[in-house]
Amino acid sequence: GFEAAIAAGAKEVAIFASASESFSKSNINCSIEESLSRYREVASAARRLSVPIRG
């Protein structure tokens, strides 16, 4: 999703994590630990491209 957003002209990235395992599983179909790993990858890519991150 990050690459597609940038290609579409996104100027910033918002990253939010779930507060509970059950919400994380039902909302994004992964554990909090898995989502944090994904978020780290997105944040790293955003920093490489100097894209502001919030969240």
Automatic annotation (TrEMBL):
Domain of life assignment: Eukaryota
Lineage: Eukaryota, Viridiplantae, Streptophyta, Embryophyta, Tracheophyta
Keywords: Lyase, Metal-binding
GO-annotated molecular function: hydroxymethylglutaryl-CoA lyase activity; metal ion binding
One BP annotation, GO: L-leucine catabolic process
Organism in which the protein naturally occurs: Nymphaea colorata
InterPro entries: Aldolase_TIM, HMGL
Name the record gives this protein: Hydroxymethylglutaryl-CoA lyase
